[in-house]
Amino acid sequence: MRETLIVLKTYTISYSLFLLVVIILIVFLCFFFKSKKCVELRQCAWGHNKLMLSTRNSHPLLGRQSGFVFKKIRTTKRFYTTKTILNPEFVSGLIDAEGCFYLNVYKNKDYVTGWALKPSFKLTLHKKDLALLEKILNFFEAGKIYKQRKESFEYRAQNLKDLNIIIAHLDKFPLFSRKKADYELFKQAISLMLVKEHLNQDGLRKIVSIKAAMNWGLLSDDLKLAFPDITSTERPLITDNSVVSPNWLAGFTTGEGCFFCNLSEGNNKVIIQLIFQITQHAKDEQFLRNLIQVLGCGYLKKKTNQEVWDFVVTKFSDINEKIIPFFLNYPIQGEKSNDFQDFCRIADLMKNKAHLTKKGLDEIRLIKSGMNKGRFSIEALSLNNLTGDVFRIGYTDKHTLQNAVSTFPNQKRYFSFTHFHCSHQRLNVEHPSIIEIYDHSRSINKSKYYENKDNFHQWLVGFTDGDGSFSIIRVAEGKWTLFFKLTQSTYNLRILYFIKKQLGVGSVYIDANCNKGDFRIRDRKNIGSIILPIFDKYPLLTSKYFSYQKFKKAYDILENPNLSTKEKDNLLLKLQSEQMPTDYISPAWKSVNYEVNNTNDAKSVMSKYWLIGFTEAEGSFYLVSKDSTRIVHAFEITQKLDPIVLKSIAYILGISISKKKTHYTVVTTNSRAIFNIIDYYNNTMKGMKTVEFRIWARSYVKDKGNYEKLRKLRDNIRVLRKIRLNKNFVLVDTTQDKNNKD
């Protein structure tokens, strides 16, 4: 009997445990499949994502029970740079201009009160200013960035931990406009949430009352019906008339300011007026009056039939002596900084009376046409299906491949060549250093080659340093020829015609197999009047300078009327036999004592146009296998001589230089360095290198980490580089020539 009782007791315990397990499983399944709200997808504005199953316990502030969620997590790192640290007062100014504090109260049966509360702080900017939002994200180290609409992105902080970081910042660096009242109300609501007041009806009514007093009020019909007798909280009265700080004003101007140029013509007279303006609602009239005190200039103007006031500065002396110096000392950020740079350029032309000449007036018209809404974005190269069977490659000069479609033997890929027009967007620019250095800002772009010949000349010197040559050839006894030559694969034939068009002289020759093309100038008149002045003004930076000096001396000898043919022949033979010293360095580096120790040393000698030209000749944007499952983006420039040149490039691009057995190289696969390189070279190059660069840069943003896509893309680029063209820009089948030779 006793044994029977023990057996029954054991059975009862086992059965109870079984029932408990079944009940737990049923509860789990009910929670798991209860609603689609159990699945939460969190997605950032970019990057590859994956689903991950994780648990979430009850949230004491939200009154939710435990459950399971799917979280979408990013598997790639963000690709923004953190080298620029924002001033905290600047951040507050930008928030005052573009920030928003919002309380979202909506029905949700999962909550105790039947209502859910989601507070959020938002900062929305145009897609052109995504880099600025990334700096804000890095500044707070909280929140996320989301793509809001087609043309905008939004920085958003929603959880209480992130919101407390925002509140702590704004308590220390306050707002000045009427938005401060919304912030104070928002902070009251967060305080109630922290003590769980929102989990009961009384606390919820307090929060709804606060929401009613905020900028958007009670827009929801559900809220109005559920709380018909709600009385809005008294809105805080902002009476602080203290003077705003300069950095705050820089941030506020980044969001709300406007730099523009009015140009009116009539009666054979042109009137140019520079205008700086900040517009606000009439409620912020006192705040706008404070700006007059801060800047020491300007006036207020009320817009007709609108509750809007403008703070305006139009007097040229105030623009030139107060506004421009102020924002040079306290720089604005983002896309608006480009308008400010153009604003300064026009002011400088007017200061020097250039606007009184036709040339100066035309330059002002050109600058004005690219400001504000006239500043277009680059349209992405049509490579949406880049890893598929079709390439679409654009040619921007007159030598286009008009709808020429050809198939390579043994290749199932087609190449569609179409003409397209590229407009440009100038991004943020660096601010002047105390040391006079070449401009390496992102405002430099390929359209500048046409605006100013000096820009093209610097680019040409860089390209020549990479792929050019100066030749002294003895044709016969007493007869000599000088050659300036640039050589490229016919794949990049367009660059040679671009150079010819810009110089207005020279000829392009293509070899019999259509593998290589040369741009040549051998007319001594053209060499003396065009080539020598360019290379005298902008010296070569590599050891190629030695060849140029010999070339120039040979020109002087041949042009000397006081020398006989025999004397010229002897002098040229002697000159031709001169050998370059093994440790030769171009005299262009004399200004830094032939040693580069920092970025300013590099930039004081090497211009961005030179570096772009040199990169078009010697640079490589490519994809490299790290292992059997990983392909990464790489950038490299290699030289046998001239380590000082590569060291300078390394400083400017923020990468390292290394010495190999037979050469020097600057190379990187570092993600942050690659992003900076994409930013540096964006919309700058002219030849086929720009096509390779755009494909490479696009894939970094779109396909980074995707082995299969990058492998196919690398194969496609290799096929692309096999293209050969004849002088009429017709595709040539080089494989047939090879078969004939075999």
UniProtKB/TrEMBL annotation:
Q: Where are the transmembrane segments?
A: 12-33
Q: Name one Pfam family in it.
A: LAGLIDADG_1
Domain of life of the native organism: Eukaryota
Q: Which UniProt keywords apply?
A: Endonuclease, Hydrolase, Membrane, Mitochondrion, Nuclease, Transmembrane, Transmembrane helix
Look up the signal peptide feature and give its range.
Answer: none
Metal-binding keyword on record: no
Single GO term (MF): endonuclease activity
Gene Ontology terms, cellular component aspect?
mitochondrion
Transmembrane helix as UniProt keyword: yes
> Start and end of every Homing endonuclease LAGLIDADG domain?
92-189, 249-346, 460-555, 611-697
What is the protein's name according to its record?
LAGLIDADG endonuclease
